[in-house]
Write a structure and sequence with these properties.
Shape: flat
CATH topology of the domain at 37-124: Immunoglobulin-like
Order of helices and strands: HEEEEEEEE
Strand order of the largest sheet: 1-2-5
Largest sheet: 3 strands, antiparallel
Structural class: alpha+beta
Number of helices: 1
Length: 128
């Protein structure tokens, strides 16, 4: 008599239950801005303890500046990729000055960070 293969039995059980599990899975923030990189994700960021906190389930490329510190000519002057659940410190935020920011889903997806004629405008791209 052959011993049953426990690994095969568990795999078969999981595969059989997968469709039901997918139906019961809760929606996550990762789907709030579309599946692909390069969609706007500005709402993923909040200013928490003088830093930008990414509350979404994916990395965002963020651009920001602090009024009366480093905002110049309608442009964001700082760009960084902030991982999911990460808070990135913002120099000058503790001074009480207004922090401006924008973000796109994914790394290297931020194209335009504003200028004098289009102040604080940002544009996302999907090419990463």
């Amino acid at each position: 008599m052959t011993k049953p293969n426990l690994h095969s039995a568990i795999t078969a059980t999981l595969l059989a239950a997968a469709p039901l599990a997918l139906l019961l899975a809760p929606a996550t923030a990762a789907y709030a801005y579309g599946d692909g990189a390069g969609t706007d994700a500005t709402n993923c960021l909040d200013l928490v303890d003088n830093g930008l906190h990414n509350g979404c389930g994916f990395a965002v490329e963020a651009a920001w500046c602090v009024e009366n510190v480093d905002c110049r000519g309608g442009r964001y002057t700082n760009i960084w990729t902030i991982g999911s659940g990460v808070r990135y410190p913002v120099q000058g935020a503790s001074t009480g000055n207004h922090v401006r920011w924008a973000a796109c889903k994914g790394r290297n997806t931020l194209d335009d960070v504003g200028n004098g004629s289009n102040p604080y405008r940002h544009q996302c791209n999907s090419s990463g």
